[in-house]
Records
---
Amino acid sequence: MSTNNQFTEAVRSWAEVFMQRSMRDFAHFMRLSGLSMPQINTLMRLYRQKTCGVSAIGRQLGISNAAASQMIDRMVQQGLLERTECAGDRRVRQLSLTVKGRALVQQAIDARHHWLTQLPARLTREQQAAIVAGLACLTEAAQNLEDAAPAAETRSRKTAAMKRP
């Protein structure tokens, strides 16, 4: 097996184990929380973005604004979200997490990553150092792929446009 194939297989195997363990623990947390996947998705988005509007939530989830608004109403009643008026336009409502909502998201993240805290005990210091170095390289390479993707897409569109009669 070539080095490229070995690398790809090793990363694929790790990704499968990582996703299976993380998602199992996350799914367990979701069952305990009583929240639906769209509700969790909304909480996670607001955790990352801080604020957004109802229509942005609807677009992300692929549901109507009315359906998004109903879901958000329930989450506001549960004390997970709050609505505030936009300073520039009082008609526009922005959503944000409450302290309770932020704490719930943090619990979800912790549940998803808990099993990772057990890994160092199963590895030597040398193995841990090698993995840290390898993952740093892998992360940088993956980020470079992301950074290069928009430029490659632009070149591809230009090339296709030049080939048209």
Note: The first helix runs from residue 3 to 33.
---
Amino acid sequence: MEPEMEVSVPPYFLCPISLQIMKDPVTVPTGITYDRESIEKWVYTNKNTTCPVTKQALNINQDTDYFLTPNHTLRRFIQSWCTLNSSYGIERFPTPKPPASKIQIKKLIDEAAKHPGQTRIRCLKRLRSIASGSTANKRCLESAGVVEFLGRVVLEEGAGSGEALGILSLLRVSEERLKGLILEEREGKLVDALVRVMQGSSDEVRDHAIVFMKLIMQAAEPAQVGKLKLVLGHFAEVVQVLRDQVSPKAARAALKVLALACPWGRNRVRAVEAGAVPVLLDLLISATPTEDRRSGEMAMTVLDQLCGSAEGRAALLEHGAGLAIVARKILRVSHYATDRGVRILSLVSRFSASPAVLREMMDVGAVTKLCMVLQTECEAKTKEKAGEIMKLHGRAWRNSPCAADVLASLP
């Protein structure tokens, strides 16, 4: 709502933080009034504990939002002013809904827990509406135990699993609560449930499920990830999310799940068996350097991990354009992607370097790219790795136009 130039806005209608007309004025204990959205962002998103104007401590209770007192009188004045100036294009904003209370939320949780089926779904829809209301509502939901309840709903895989994941996607669940879910879930049952919910569900539910799986794995300690007992079916569903191009957000989450799971050798083999290598290569073919650099880097990271296994290297070489795709990404996406590309070529050249593979590396331009890495401003470790590859197979590539000069310059 931007006022016209002819309208003079009373300064006390403006939020001291955003300098915009307040829609939901609230007063903090220091006596200063702010717009609710702005002060919540100041406190909860930016992690400040003092009043922006007076710099005094706000004495915030982490489980409540009682330090924000609605200023109904000022809100009515602002709404009346908007109405009086409607001819200037000023729109009167509706009266904001009051923040949710713990009592209200706990009542909905209890009702949903006692009555599975349509009653549960109605309660979950109401909780989702509350979660979409404000930052204060999200915090109130989390402190009322809704995260733990939603985790149990997903584990049951009954009515409302998709709705529960939708609510979790709206909440900024703390790492502490995510770790609590991991400790409660026992032997990867939550991951099992997420995978089963994803099967045959809408793209929206699959999006929410894979994102939540990523959050769970990010919050877990490395040793806990190793104990999740991920099986072929888990990897197959994650890879299917990439294959189906559910959404850019889901693709990034799926890549992160694979990256977190594949430091363990058994997981690498299962990911390869699930068809991850050709899907990653197809993703790299379709992505442009400027479209989504982070996704390209993640795909190269996972491909590098998978090539740490004999099965992964075999899958890369079986793909009609595997080596060509990797070579193409070197010096095109980022320094990080270049390093990963050189690492992949190093793994292939050390452990799978048959005469046919070495010829293919020269034919598809991989050798040329290695020479360019040595002659351009790349990371020192990346250059060192490229030099090792050239020295290892320089004799096989001596007919390459650029190899002779580069090999002569190597120490």
Note: Residues 187-274 form one domain.
---
Amino acid sequence: MKKVVVLNRISIDGFFAGPNGEMDWFVRDPEVDKAVHEPVETGTILLGRLTYQLFESFWPHVAKDPNAPKELLATAKELDQLTKVVFSTTLQETTWQNSQLIKEDVAGEVRRLKQGNGPAMMIFGSGTIIQQLADQGLIDEYLLIVTPVILGVGKPLFKDVAKSNLELIDSRGFASQNVLLHYRARV
């Protein structure tokens, strides 16, 4: 079966975004960006509407900018090529190449997508998608970049999610003071 892997930045107090969706508190680090690519080969990304619209408004433009920093350009080109599955009941269409829109039954669609072999499916951001899939036991691994900040308020990554036991696969600290935690869901 294909794996579903979450990749998210979180504050020390467990928020993946500020109360209004702001992400200006991230401590950017090219070494962390490089490290998150090492453990998982990705073929598909799963996105909710808000994350899709944020990504779609930024990454395709970076991919076409010859003056973009090489790390951003590499990420943009990779994202362009990946299959993007967008879950939304309100979005009418997707315009970013290799994107498909799914309007209902997030868990059922992910169960279907997991069938067979192949590269993992990665979820970026998309807290409500993570919460739905975690509750259904459909997430296999978590790559969490813990950023050295306490937000106090924001959007919790695991709001209203049932208890789930995880196994630590790896942890790495970086000069930026970010910490990368890699967990596997226990069955």
Note: Helices lie at 30-37, 49-63, 70-81, 106-114, 127-135.
